[in-house]
Each structure stands twice: as C-alpha cells, then as structure tokens.
Specification:
344 residues, alpha+beta, five-stranded mixed beta sheet, 12 helices, 14% strand
Length: 344
Amino acid sequence: MIQKTASRRRATELAILKRKIELRYFGKNTHRQKKQQHKLFLSDNPIATTQSSQSQNINSSSSIRNEKKKNYGRLVKRLKHKIRSGSTRQHYQKKSNEYMEKTEAYQCLGVNDPLPNLIERTNKYLLDLRLAHWITQKQYELLCVKPSEAKLAHLYYLPKTHKPGTPLRPIVSGLKHPTIKISTYLDQLLRPLFNKIGLKTTTTSGFEVMKQVYEWSTTNLRKETLLCTIDVVDLYTMIPQTEGVLAIKKMLDYLELKQIGGLKIETIIRLSRFVMKNNYFLYEGQYYHQIRGGAMGSPLTLTIANCYMFFFERNIVKQITNAGGLYLRYIDDMFIIINWPERH
C-alpha cells in the first residue's frame, strides 16, 4: 500500500513537471504570436496585405507549434527514461545510504512490520494516561488510533539542487502514522507559544529578513559592516531526542505556564517524548526506527527544532544585539549583520 502511495506521488510529480514544461514551451509561443499579430495590426499596409501577412504568420506559427510539440514529447520521454534508469536509481540509493551512515539516525528493523505493535502501544499509552487522569476522555478519544485507518510512514528524499553535491533532504511522510494525531495536537498547542518567544529572533520569509535589514542599515551600515550566514547541517535528524523534548519544557518554564489546553506540563512532556521515540517508516522494502532526531514530516518536529535552537542560540543573540547588530533565523538558516572587526 505504501509503495502504491509512493508510486502515485511520483505520477503526480511527473504530471506537475509536464504541465510546467507545457507552459514553458507553449506559453512563450502564444506570447510571440500575440506580439507578431499586434505588429501587423499597427502597420500601415493595406488590409488585404495585413490579412495575407497574418495568414502566413499563423501558418508559420502553426509549424513552429508542431515542432515545439515534437521537441516537448522528446523531452518528456528523456526525463521519464532518466528517472527510471538504473544509474539514476543507483545514485539516489547511494546518497541515501551515505546519509543514513553519516547521521546514524536510523535503525534498520529488516522486514518485520512494526505497525501492529505500534498501534497497540500507542493506544495502551493513551489509555494509561486516561486512567491516571492525565488526559480527559475527550482527549483520549481524539488521540487514540483506529487500526483500520493507521498506516506506517514512508521515507522519500528531495534533492537540494541549490547546494554543492546535491545532498538529499529526508521526508518521512506519515499522514496516517499512529502518532500523527498526538503530534498534530501538541503542535497546535505549542507552536503559537514559540512564535511568541521567538518573535524578535526568528522569521518566516525572505521578505521579512530584507525589511529588517533595511531598517537596521538606515542608521548602522558602515564600510566595515559584516554579513554572515550560517547553516545548521541536518538539524532535524541531529537534535538529540531527549534534549529536544527538554527544550519544550524550557519554553514552558520560560513562559511560566503550568498547563496548556487543559494538559499539565508533565503530560505534554510525556506525549512529546512518546512521539519523538516512536518514528517508524518503510523504505525500499525495509522497516526503520528513527533513533536520533525527529521526523521531517511530523508537525511537532518543527516546533521542537525551533525551541531547541532558541535556547542554543541565546548567548549568540545576546552578543550580537548588545553590540548593536541584527540576528535572525529561519529554522536552520541564521543571518547576522554587525559592525565588528573581521577578527571576530
């Protein structure tokens, strides 16, 4: 079933790519036709001559369009062949193996499907919390797993074409994973709280970065001004799971909160830990357990990563702002602008 889902995703991506190529080929041609027709309309030639010219132009454009269709068809065939070719697949698999070895974040379980056991453990964990009055009956019913609807997550990669060597970005897609309801529920509670504490140091768009840089530069820009960008490598998979969950606790303590949405802080920590410790997925016929970091694709992972970085970067932010500089971060990308001597 998961392989069929991946196949459908690939078909969808090919359809989108096909549409983009069509727009690229035929959209430009249509624009050129309109320009040519507009020139003919503005010319001082007699109407008969104009009509004749237009007819010739349309015939010529039709010929060009047919040629474009042939070229487009060839291009699509080449792309399909490249995607399906063994060399491309082997290269993709090699990069996947290198990533797994480098991060040491995934434990291979072989062909033993962990889904039935994970469903059972998730529901038992929630029931224990309900019986101990850590969560309400309504929360229990909201978060528990229906075995008929649950599916294990699957892993796929997106190539980072803008980076040297084209590294891969792992996406663990688990829209029906047994812990997805807990992850989504916690994220809805916690993300607004992080947005509150990270308002001055985090951003969600390049436009916001440029706006703040412009405002800073109007009074602070110098010849010796330094610009610095920093990328955190493999942030989601490199965050220690225990420390990531503790970052949530730090945030709630920082905000002096005792409970959120009817959940005690200890309950939130317990549920967050359960989500982080139970990321399982299928890849190339093998089952894996993520033993380090969080799944890129699970809603809670982003909030945990942001909280972890917020407390990790506090000393850096303090040094930069005390010196009159500007510090901004978007998930794993940091931007610093400051008037410091180069040796700093």
